[in-house]
Every structure is written in C-alpha cells, then in structure tokens.
Amino acid sequence: MSYVSLKGFLNGASYQKRGRPIDVSGERARELLRLGLIGASAGKAAPTPENKMNPAPENKEGGPGAPAQSVDYAGLLGKNAPEVVDAVSAIADPEALRGLLAAEEAGKARKSVIEAIQAGVAARSA
To answer: Which residue of 2, 64, 74, 109 has the fewest C-beta atoms within 10 A of its own C-beta?
Structure first.
C-alpha cells in the first residue's frame, strides 16, 4: 500500500517532507500511522481548504431593508434629562421611541423626557 507523509519527520537518516509519497515496511507503516505522521494515499488530490472567510452580509448598514437601529435604553435613560431630550431628536424609528417611552415610564418617569419622547413619536408616526 502506498502512503503519503502528513507531517515532516526524520525517517531513519533522511528527512521526509510533508505531502511526499513514502515506501516503508508494514511494521514501520503501522508505527508511523499510529503517530499520525503518514496516511493512506488517495491519489493526487489536494486536501480541501477550510473556508475561513465570513459570509457576505445580507445588506449594508443603513441601506434599504436594513434592520432598525437599536436603542440602548439603559445607557440613554441613565443620562440627565436634557441629554436624553437631545438624543431623542436623533432617533428616527417610532418603534424605538415607543420602547424608550415604556422604559422611561417604568423607570424614572421624568416629565420633560416623557413629553419629548411622545412628541418624537407623534412627529415620526404622522
């Protein structure tokens, strides 16, 4: 049976390079197979490389069909009221504003923040 070296190794007095065919006795072949240094020859086909590339994205960020921007409710609502009111004007998604409104009402329930969010929802829903 013919074998191919899977790894480079010292075979007696000579060095056996990886990928080269090797002729050895049955006993030596069993030993090298057990050590994982050689394998059965399956012709001259190269091993199939593993594809390490990430799959292509379905769409680019912000393009048509892109998912709505996510809002970090805890981080945004943890700020003081004027900062939250300023940030609300930059949120374009009415559903995100509704979620922000629910989080604010369940948390600090600041009147100025609630009014700003409600105004943002009304302006973007119309």
So the answer is: 64
Task: Provide the residue type at 46 as one letter.
Answer: A
Mean pLDDT of the region 11-30: 89
Q: Give the integer Cα–Cα distance in Å for 79 and 95.
A: 21
Whether this model's pTM surpasses 0.85: no
Q: Which one, of 34, 19, 28, lies nearest residue 1 by Cα?
A: 28
- Strands 14-16 and 9-11 turn out to be antiparallel
79 CA to centre of own chain: 30
CA atoms within 13 A on the CB side of 88: 29
Q: Which two tokens stand for residue 43?
A: 């012709």
Q: Output the pLDDT for position 68.
A: 53
Residue 73 has pLDDT above 90, yes or no: no
